[in-house]
Amino acid sequence: MVQVKEFWPRYWGGIVVLDRAKDFFKALGGGVLLKDRFITGFLLNSRAIANYKRAKATGLEQNFRGEGEIKGGLFIVGRGGRGIAYQFVERNFGDWAPMAEVLDVCSRMQVFIFFQISFIMITFASSIEQDMEKKNSKDYDCLST
Questions:
Q1: Of 5, 8, 10, 95, whose CB neighbour count within 10 A is largest?
Q2: Domain locations in the chain?
Q3: CA 31 to chain centre
């Protein structure tokens, strides 16, 4: 919990949910935790070492506390019942989801939301217009009699 308190205000600021059962990680692995040993998954893995060097070059503070063997990933979840819009699974320690893919998915979701809102607004405006036409025709009928 100390790690969350150190991370949260500095890098996130939003809601932090503690997944004690590691269900998020199990979901990434199709129901199983994706794990790798430190020696085989990191020390003997040139991609993991390159990922470590890339992360270190960012200049962000890091620590080596925590579980250390579970691989992670990313889910982008759509609103309502839309489900998972994007999934990235860490194959080598330190893999990052390709930023271009993440931004593309997010921007498509924004466009969809924009069109959905626009459709709602157009539908609402159309129904108001129809109500006004009915009201005006009733008023006109009343005036003409």
A1: 95
A2: 1-70
A3: 20
